[in-house]
Amino acid sequence: MSNRYAAEDLHRFVTQLFHRAGLAEERSAVMANVFLQADLLGFTTHGLNRVCSNLNWLVNGETRKEGEPQVLSDRGGCFNWDADFLPGPWILSQAIGEALRRVKERGVVTATLRRSQHIACLAAYLPPIIEAGCVGILTCSTPAERTVSPQGSCDALFSANPIAFAAPAGEYPLLFDISMSVTAGGYVSRAKREKRLLPSESLKDSHGRLSNDPAALEEGGSILPIGGADHGYKGAALSAMLEVLSMGLSGYGRGDAQSSRDDEANSVFVQIIDPQAFGKSDDFLRQTTALCNLWQSCHPDEGSDAQVRVPGQRAWSDRARQLKDGVELYPSIMADLEPWADRLDVIAPRALDG
């Protein structure tokens, strides 16, 4: 059975699901686009895979369906909004759109959000930044979440704290979206659901022993920071930096009491840079293109047939291919969405042949 669907069919389907769950149609379309972009780029754990949880938050009232963010501060080149549990993909899209409108005049625009409902995949927000010829830096943290342990400790302290970056280059942008943990929580959850072990010992159990059993996380364990068991102090330091940028600058984080509603709510940091504020765009593109080309031309390790991987090359190629030929959904995604389609009386799309 095919798991490939036309991108426009998936967008229409997910838009209708969010609209039937009580969200305005325009906001529903923005939500659907963010989740779809994640799958187009290959980030299958945080794309359409997260639609069901977002529908559940809407229906249960954990996500605010209407209203605007509260502007806490605005100095033109930087602003801070309190989202008060507005849908994460919608409110972050609004913040990025506002930053892009300002950046041609300001050169650099920095924004923070507090109490945004879960924003899913950071990479999904990068295409419009790239298409505007800008550099984008995004990071987020979850004040109520403790899943990643610092070096030398069996106690979980940090959230996964992903950071995404994009810069225009040649045929493809330099683009990545990585967590400050050895593996992402989405992969741990998927492995547990599929009753398989992780490919490496990327977890600690509650006693601090290394483990590849996804159940260890649920049983009081933690995910290792970037750097793993030997060099995790580097990942812990980066985790702290990103929590300062997102929680510290937004003014909401570990220093505040959280309710059950905060479980998935994010603090967010966004910075958009217009290279033309520093010089000619051709000069900038000459440098970024040269970097990617040199990286791509590096020889692979002896005995390896794999091409040296430049971040963004595969994702951008996958996006173009899937927009043309159909989106290859992870097998469990449509199975999870079909009960919501029945519940909300929305017709699910048909898979493409082949």
TrEMBL record:
Keywords: Oxidoreductase. It comes from the Bacteria. InterPro entries: Mal/L-sulf/L-lact_DH-like_ah, Mal/L-sulf/L-lact_DH-like_NADP, Mal/L-sulfo/L-lacto_DH-like_sf, Malate/L-lactate_DH-like. SUPFAM superfamilies: L-sulfolactate dehydrogenase-like (SSF89733). It holds the Pfam family Ldh_2. Belongs to the LDH2/MDH2 oxidoreductase family. PANTHER family: MALATE DEHYDROGENASE, OXIDOREDUCTASE-RELATED. This is Delta(1)-pyrroline-2-carboxylate/Delta(1)-piperideine-2-carboxylate reductase. It comes from Microbulbifer aestuariivivens. The lineage of its organism: Bacteria, Pseudomonadati, Pseudomonadota, Gammaproteobacteria, Cellvibrionales.
